[in-house]
C-alpha cells in the first residue's frame, strides 16, 4: 500500500517536471504564434498582451504577398533537401564502415568528426567564404549546399555511428553467406533495418540546414537568400515589422513540425533503437 | 563431393596474435564434425575461415576438392547458422527463408515451393508471415536452420546455434539438428563449447585448445582413448580426476593409498611395463569410482568425503584423495566448491556416505588412464 502511494507521488513529480520542461520549451513558440495572429496595431502595444484581443491573419497575408519570402522558402527547401541527401549519402556508408570495420583509423575518423563539431561555425565562415569565392559558388544553391553539408556531415556521421553500433555484425555476414556481396548486404539488409535511424538523422540534418543562419548570411545575397535571412530582415533600419516577422517565423516552422509528426513513428523507433536481434 | 580439407591452416591477426596453429584435418563428405574447446581456443575462427568470413594467413582450404582460400563466402556454396541466428528483422519468416534463393536468381515458383517444403520439414508453415521479433527462441532457431537448408548447400556451418536456448529446448533442438543432418546427409561443421553437445551430435569431434588441434576422433574414442591430459579432462562430465602418482612394478601409489593395477592395463599400455618408481599422471573418471561398501573391488582407496551432492539417480561424492592434483589447462573449468583439488566420484544412490566420513572407494582400475607428467600425453 505504502509502496503504491510512493510510486504515485514519484509519478506525479515526474509528470510535473515533464510539464515544466515542456512549457519552458513551448512558451516562446506559443508567444510567437499568438503575436503572429494579432492585428499589426496590437503587436507593439505597451504593456504587451499574451493573448490577442482580435484574431487577425493580416500578418500572414502581408508576408505571403511579398515577393521575397516565397522565393526564400524555395531556396531554403532546395538547400535543406539537397544538404540532407548529400549528407546522408556521405555519412551513412562512412558511419557503417567506421563502426562495423573498426580499426584505429576509423576511431580517429569519428573522433575527428566530433572535433569538427566543436569548432565554432563563425570561425569557419571566412575560410568557407574564400573557398566558395575561389570556386565561383558564392550566392549559389550548390555553394550553400556544400557549406551546409560540411556542417551537417559530422552530425549525421555521429548519429548514424550510434545507430550502427546496435547492428550485429552477423547480419551482414549472414547476407554474405546467403549470396550477397558486401555492398548488396549493405543495400538489401542493413539499410532497410536502419530506416528509423536514417529517418532521425535525415530530420536532424534537414533541421540543421533549414535553421542555419550564419553561413546563409555570409555566403548568399539576393539570388539564393534563405528564409531565416529574410525573416531577420524584417528588423531593418526602416523599422521593426514584428507582426510580419512572427508570421513568417510561424510559416517557416510549419514544415519541420509536419515532417516531425509524419516521421514520429520512425523517430521514436530510431531513438530507442537497440540491438536488432532477429 | 563436399568434403572439407584443412591443410596447415594458420591465422595471425594484425596485432600478431596467433589464433590458429597449423590446423590440418579432413571433414568427410556427409560427415557431422564438431569443433569443441574452451573460450578462445580458435574453434569459431576456424569455422569462420571455412565460411570465408575470416581470411587465411597461410595454409590451404579446400571444399569439394576446390581451393577456396580467396573465394568469397557467397561463392563457396555453404550455408551458416549463427549463434544469434542473424535473422533479417525487417523480413517475414517466408522472406528470410527465401532470401538466399532470391539471391541465387531462382524462378519465383521454385522459390515458393522450396520455402513451403522447408517450412513443412521444420514445422514453420503457420509462422511464415510473421516477423522474427514475434517468434520464440526455438522458432527463430528453426527459421535460421530453414534459411540454411533451403539452398541445399554443399555444407552447413553452425556456430553455437543452441547456446541462446534454455536447457530443455537445447536438448530437444540438439536431437532435431542431428536427425535433420542425418536425413539430409550434408557435410556439417558445428562449433560448440559444450562437450555434451559435441559428444551426442558429432560423427567425429575436433578438440581444440589455444589455437592448436588436440585430437580429432569419434566421441567414443575421445572418451576411451584421449591423446592427452587436456582432452581427457575436457571430455566427460564431471571431468576426469587427474593426480600425480607413482607406478612401481604393478603397484600404483596415489597419495597415501597403494593398489595393484590389473594385468590387462599393461597389455594395452605396454610402455608401462617394467616401471620402477615411475612418476605418472593418473586419470580416473568419476564413473569409475564407487562406494566399496556397495561394489567391492580389489583396488580400493580411503579418502575423506568433503561434500555429497545427491542427484537422485546418483550421488556426486567429493573426496580428498591426498595426492598432488594436476591442472588439465582448461581455462573455463570451474573449481569445485570448497576445494578445487577434490576428486569427484559418481556413487550409487544407495551409498550412505556423508560429508566428514572416511569413504572406502572402489576404483575400476582397468579403466585408469596414464599420462606422461612432462609431455602430458597418453602412455600407451
Notes on the structure:
The complex is a heterodimer of chains A (278) and B (380). With 278 residues, chain A is mainly α. Chain A has 2 domains: 2-36; 58-271, MetI-like fold (Orthogonal Bundle), CATH 1.10.3720.10. Chain A is 77% helix and 1% strand. Chain A has a two-stranded antiparallel sheet with strand order 1-2. In chain A, a hairpin with a 2-residue loop joins strand 1 (235-236) and strand 2. In chain A, helix 4 (68-100) packs antiparallel against helix 5 (104-118), helix 8 (169-177) packs across helix 9 and helix 10 (195-211) packs across helix 14. The two termini of chain A are 40 Å apart. Mean pLDDT of chain A is 88; it is low at 274-278. In chain B, the strands form 4 sheets. A 6-stranded mixed beta sheet of chain B has the order 6-7-8-3-9-10, sandwiched between helices. The model of chain B has no long low-confidence stretch (mean pLDDT 94). Chain B has helices spanning 43-51, 93-103, 108-121, 137-149, 167-184, 195-201, 219-224, 229-234, 263-268, and strands at 4-12, 18-27, 32-36, 58-63, 66-67, 78-81, 155-159, 187-192, 204-209, 212-217, 241-248, 251-254, 257-260, 278-284, 289-291, 300-310, 315-319, 343-347, 358-363, 369-371. Chain B is built from 9 helices and 20 strands. By secondary structure, chain B is α+β, with helices and mostly antiparallel strands. Chain B has 2 domains: 4-230, P-loop containing nucleotide triphosphate hydrolases (Rossmann fold, 3-Layer(aba) Sandwich), CATH 3.40.50.300; 234-371, OB fold (Dihydrolipoamide Acetyltransferase, E2P) (Beta Barrel). Chain B starts with a strand and ends in a 9-residue tail after the last strand. Chain A: It is found in: Cell membrane. Chain A: It is a multi-pass membrane protein.
